[in-house]
Amino acid sequence: MSTVLEAKHINKYFRKPTLFHVLKDINFKINRGDFTSIMGKSGCGKSTLLYILSTMDSDYEGQLYLNNELITGNSRQKISYIRNKHIGFVFQFHYLLSEFSVLENVMLPAKKLAEKSYEEIEYDAMQKLTILNIDHLAKKRASRISGGEKQRVAIARALINNPSIIMGDEPTGNLDSYNADNVFNIFKRLSDEEGLSLLIVTHDQDFANQTDRIIQMSDGRIIE
Ligand SMILES: Nc1ncnc2c1ncn2[C@@H]1O[C@H](COP(=O)(O)OP(=O)(O)OP(=O)(O)O)[C@@H](O)[C@H]1O
Questions:
Q1: 3-class secondary structure for the chain?
Q2: What is the model's pTM?
Q3: What are the ABC transporter domain coordinates in residue numbering (predicted)?
């Protein structure tokens, strides 16, 4: 089984207001195609860890590998390229551009990567919307759709560059239970049917139980 993501001896400190050792010797691997969840009490360091794993934070000790390539220590520009190409994100809040259409929002990360023509990107974006059963919303403004629909658009946007892994920080946290189930089931389907690698932080034990593996954190450490 090949490894998509690996964390080796990750330690992280916050220096203000006082020195605080927030992540303590984090080690784990994520196999390609696995659906992994991270759980743990509020404040144990889940978001801080996800921020490092998603390459958005470079201020840590230890090594991070993506597709067996060392990410740590690369230039900001290279890391930004790798992130855009290989990692898709879904946050608790969707962060869609409200004045743009659904289709334009989904196209954005591919435009940024600038490796395909406008027409190809548009075609890819429509395909992702179709996978998520929201192709009928393509021309609508992002501000004019429901919360559950917005989160599905955010997933389509995360998929647009065919990333190696999708990461989510409480991706169902801001939704009512019906829409939370719906979004979780989309992740589950992407994992089961498309073989996607997924890593989500969640407080929901029922959701976590349906993933392939639960990483349990406590006080900045992985305990299980
Ligand atoms: N920029 C910062 N400076 C100092 N301390 C911070 C900073 N960001 C987070 N912390 C602290 O680090 C700890 C871990 O925070 P983090 O957000 O990673 O926890 P979490 O497990 O994701 O919590 P939650 O489930 O509530 O989102 C907390 O004690 C938090 O107060």
A1: CCEEEEEEEEEEEECCCCCEEEEEEEEEEEECCCEEEEEECCCCCHHHHHHHHCCCCCCCEEEEEECCEECCCCCHHHHHHHHHHHEEEECCCCCCCCCCEHHHHHHHHHHHHCCCCHHHHHHHHHHHHHHCCCHHHCCCEHHHCCHHHHHHHHHHHHHCCCCCEEEEECCCCCCCHHHHHHHHHHHHHHHHHHCCEEEEECCCHHHHHCCCEEEEEECCEECC
A2: 0.91
A3: 5-224
